[in-house]
Every structure is written in structure tokens, then in C-alpha cells.
């Protein structure tokens, strides 16, 4: 058996039995879909706490996360949302969706394979009309042409009035995509992350 055949066999075994840690799955996802993964290193807890700080968890019934990967943010969101709230994760990589479904047994989590550009259709399929908050770490600057603007427009339409689009990026270019749809955008910078990240909170009036 060749090395590549052995590697493929190991990959199938890991995905089948769920072995391999979060970092292994994260790196594997990056290799398979590099333009859809923002970084090869998961976000720091400092960045996570700062990104989620403005959220009013008491009023949040639906929180949507784009590109959850191996769940670096997911557990922190589940720790904060109410018992009757829902966390809907959307990822184009089915490996990540399967991994999340195995990793988390929390009934409040709905892990879906799909595109963030189809967020309203995915929400409707899950029985929701509007989201309170949407979080994204998708690398807007490397997405295929037209996808970034489509995600920004669909996210604004998916949010309830007063809701927010929370975005963390390693390039500030994402503001060009979200500014046409959100009149109020708060911005910050977090050095305590590898690499340092720009944070945006875009609010829907």
C-alpha cells in the first residue's frame, strides 16, 4: 500500500470513529478548504470573551455561527445562551459539521452543512424567522468573488431589528462588505490572539 493510500485510510478511520483532537481536525479542514478557514490557529479565549461581551444573552433566542470549525467559539456560546435558546452553526465543510455533532451533545445546538449566503433558507428550514446575533470568522477577503457581499446582505436580512453581526477578521477589508448594510459599526483590535484580529460589531437598526 502506498503512503497516500495509507494516509487516506487513516483519514477515513479518524472521521469514522471520531478520533483525532480538535487541532488535528482544524488543520485538516484548513488543508482541505484553505479559503474558507480564517486561520490555522484557533481563536484565543481573550478574543472570544471580547467578541461576545456585547451580547444580551437574556434576550437571545437564536444565535447563528458561521464557520464554527471545531467549536472554538461554540462551547463558549453554549455556556452563555439560555436553556430555551438555540445555537445554529453553519459550515460548508461536512467534516466540521460531523465533528461538532459528535463533540457536543447539547440539544440546543443545530449543526448544519451549508453556505452562510443561504442563512435565511437554513433558518427557515430549522423553524426560525430571525436571528438575534450572527457570529462570523469567515475570511471575507479570500472568499470567492461575490460570496462576501452576498453573506453580508443575507445576514442583515436574517437579523431582527436591534440584532448584531459579530465579525472577527485578520484583514479590515470586511468592513467594505458590511458597511452598505449596517449604519452602526463598532470596531476594536485584539492583540492577544495569533494572529492579532480586528473585531466588528455591526448593529441592525
Kindly report the average pLDDT value: 85
Largest sheet: 7 strands, mixed
Q: What is the H-and-E element order?
A: HHHEHEHEHEHEHEE
Structural class of the helix and strand makeup? alpha/beta
Percent in helix: 25-40%
Per CATH, the superfamily is Vaccinia Virus protein VP39
The level 1 CATH classification is: Alpha Beta
CATH architecture: 3-Layer(aba) Sandwich
Strand content: 15-25%
- Major sheet strand order: 3-2-1-4-5-7-6
How far is the N terminus from the C terminus? 60 Å
Shape: globular
| Rg from alpha-carbon coordinates | 17 Å
Number of self-contained structural domains: 1
What is the number of E strands?
Answer: 7
Query: According to CATH, what is the topology?
Result: Rossmann fold
Parts with pLDDT < 50 across at least 5 consecutive residues:
1-19, 22-27, 29-40
**SS field, number of helical segments:** 8
Structural write-up:
The termini are far apart. By secondary structure, this protein is α/β, with parallel strands linked by helices. 36% of the residues lie in helices and 23% in strands. The protein has helices at residues 3-17, 22-32, 45-52, 74-80, 94-103, 119-125, 147-158, 175-178; strands at 62-66, 86-91, 109-113, 131-136, 159-169, 184-190, 197-203. The chain has a seven-stranded mixed sheet, with helices on both faces. The protein has one domain (3-203): Vaccinia Virus protein VP39 (Rossmann fold, 3-Layer(aba) Sandwich). The protein is globular, with a radius of gyration of 17 Å. The chain is built from eight helices and seven strands. The longest helix has 15 residues, at 3-17.
Amino acid at each position: 500500500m502506498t503512503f497516500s493510500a495509507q494516509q487516506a485510510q487513516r483519514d477515513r478511520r479518524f472521521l469514522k470513529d471520531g478520533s483525532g483532537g480538535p487541532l488535528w481536525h482544524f488543520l485538516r479542514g484548513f488543508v482541505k478548504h484553505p479559503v474558507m478557514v480564517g486561520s490555522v490557529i484557533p481563536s484565543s479565549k481573550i478574543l472570544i470573551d471580547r467578541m461576545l461581551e456585547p451580547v444580551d444573552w437574556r434576550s437571545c433566542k437564536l444565535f447563528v455561527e458561521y464557520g464554527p470549525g471545531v467549536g472554538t467559539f461554540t462551547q463558549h456560546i453554549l455556556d452563555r445562551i439560555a436553556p430555551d435558546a438555540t445555537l445554529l452553526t453553519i459550515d460548508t465543510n461536512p467534516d466540521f459539521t460531523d465533528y461538532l455533532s459528535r463533540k457536543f451533545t447539547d440539544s440546543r445546538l443545530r449543526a448544519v452543512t451549508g453556505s452562510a449566503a443561504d442563512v435565511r433558507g437554513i433558518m427557515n428550514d430549522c423553524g426560525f424567522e430571525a436571528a438575534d446575533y450572527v457570529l462570523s470568522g469567515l475570511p471575507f477577503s479570500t472568499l470567492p468573488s461575490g460570496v462576501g457581499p452576498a453573506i453580508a446582505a443575507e445576514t442583515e436580512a436574517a437579523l431582527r431589528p436591534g440584532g448584531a453581526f459579530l465579525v472577527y477578521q485578520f484583514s479590515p477589508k470586511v468592513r467594505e462588505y458590511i458597511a452598505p448594510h449596517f449604519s452602526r459599526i463598532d470596531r476594536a483590535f485584539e492583540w492577544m490572539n495569533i494572529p492579532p484580529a480586528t473585531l466588528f460589531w455591526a448593529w441592525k437598526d
